[in-house]
Automatic annotation (TrEMBL):
E.C. designation(s): 7.6.2.11
Protein known as: Spermidine/putrescine import ATP-binding protein PotA
Family: Belongs to the ABC transporter superfamily. Spermidine/putrescine importer (TC 3.A.1.11.1) family.
GO molecular function term, any single one: ABC-type putrescine transporter activity
UniProt cross-references to SMART domains, sorted A to Z: AAA
Phylogenetic classification of the source organism: Bacteria, Bacillati, Bacillota, Clostridia, Peptostreptococcales
Any one cellular-component term (Gene Ontology): ATP-binding cassette (ABC) transporter complex
All copies of domain ABC transporter, residue ranges: 6-236
Keywords noted in UniProt: ATP-binding, Cell membrane, Membrane, Nucleotide-binding, Translocase, Transport
Gene3D superfamilies for this protein: 2.40.50.100, P-loop containing nucleotide triphosphate hydrolases
PANTHER family (UniProt xref): SPERMIDINE/PUTRESCINE IMPORT ATP-BINDING PROTEIN POTA (PTHR42781), SPERMIDINE_PUTRESCINE IMPORT ATP-BINDING PROTEIN POTA (PTHR42781:SF4)
Function, as annotated: Part of the ABC transporter complex PotABCD involved in spermidine/putrescine import. Responsible for energy coupling to the transport system.
SUPFAM superfamilies linked: MOP-like, P-loop containing nucleoside triphosphate hydrolases
């Protein structure tokens, strides 16, 4: 059984009148890559700072391996943090930056040498020991910041939007590298981002947050394929979301049409939200579709076309490798397993 390494229990935090976290509970397992995902102001960075000890909760407890650490300062917690601004020392070379924490601990020089070289190998920057920080690219600086954090062998590494300052290609490369490093070391990573692609690419577990509360917790596949409410569906990927009525188990009505679905357990004639992902809509001839509408626009996205269809005044977004002519009538088919039913909740 996988043990929890960090437990947040009934955490609340306010800044003046603004309640950032509201009775927040979260268990983080050993050796997992967990991502806190949500829009600006949702409380994800505050959560990370409370774990790190840079902020203290107004109420609640922080446990590390079952022991209370709520009032311990950052330097007494067995974890390290990497921020978006890497805070490397410009007057020190690469070796000195990585070795800094070990020197503070008065680690013997031979051990420092060994550990620094191990870290440089881990982040694929062997031979960079004497390079100045200013001579490094943004991606290289980020790797050095990670090496400096990991050289002290923390049990948990906290990362606060560390890829935000990188360009798209480098950011994508670093997503792969970070996941590889986490798997090699087998330690817990807690990653904060507002970027859905980052979260889906890297995480074992995603926590979707909004207004200081957890909206959904699960694997990337669960979060994307089975969103629990309209907020999650809108925030993770593109979605078509419509009001609907669950007439009975496996029977739903939306867009003035009755569909079979795979959901059950709702009240009879309960008002619900329906989500259909753009890639799950099948394009067919207009007279053969469950629904039909006029193609209003198409945009080439590289791997697919994004097609906007007006169906009786309702806007649908479709993703398909085939294009459709603007102004043409298009049929749309939706299979039961591609219709996702959600209870109505406020965002």
């Amino acid at each position: 059984m996988v043990e929890n390494i960090i437990e947040l229990k009934n955490i609340s935090k306010s800044y003046e009148e603004n309640r950032v976290l509201d009775n927040f509970n979260l268990d983080i397992k050993k050796n997992e890559f967990l991502t806190l995902l949500g829009p600006s102001g949702c409380g994800k960075t505050t959560t990370l700072k409370i774990i790190a000890g840079f902020e203290y909760a107004d109420e609640g407890s922080v446990l590390f391996e079952g022991k209370e650490i709520s009032n311990k300062p950052p330097y007494e917690r067995p974890l390290n943090t990497v921020f978006q601004k890497y805070a490397l020392f410009p007057h020190m070379d690469v070796y000195e930056n990585i070795a800094f924490g070990l020197k503070i601990k008065k680690t013997p020089k031979d051990q420092i040498d060994k550990k620094v070289r191990e870290m440089l190998k881990l982040v694929a920057l062997e031979g960079f020991e004497k390079r100045s920080i200013d001579s490094l690219s943004g991606g290289q600086q980020q790797r050095i910041a990670i090496a400096r954090a990991l050289v002290n062998e923390p049990k948990v590494l906290l990362l606060d939007e560390p890829l935000g300052a990188l360009d798209l290609k480098l950011r994508q490369e670093m997503q792969t590298e970070l996941k590889k490093i986490q798997q090699q070391l087998g330690i817990t990573f807690v990653f904060v981002t507002h970027d859905q692609e980052e979260a889906l690419t890297m995480s074992d577990t995603i926590i979707v947050m909004n207004k200081g509360k957890i909206q959904q917790m699960g694997s990337p596949e669960d979060i994307y394929n089975e969103p629990e409410n309209a907020f999650v569906a809108r925030f993770i990927g593109e979605s078509n979301i419509f009001d609907g009525i669950m007439h009975d188990d496996f029977k739903v009505e939306f867009c003035d049409t009755h569909f079979d679905c795979v959901d059950k357990g709702f009240e009879k004639n309960e008002s619900i939200d329906v989500i259909v992902r753009p890639e799950d809509i099948k394009m067919v001839e207009s007279d053969k579709g469950m629904l039909k509408g006029i193609v209003e626009s198409t945009v080439f996205k590289g791997v697919h076309y994004e097609i906007t269809v007006n169906e009786n005044g309702r806007e649908w977004i479709l993703h398909n490798t085939k294009n459709a002519e603007v102004g043409s009538m298009l049929g749309m088919d939706i299979y039961p397993e591609d219709i996702h039913i959600m209870k109505k909740v406020s965002d």
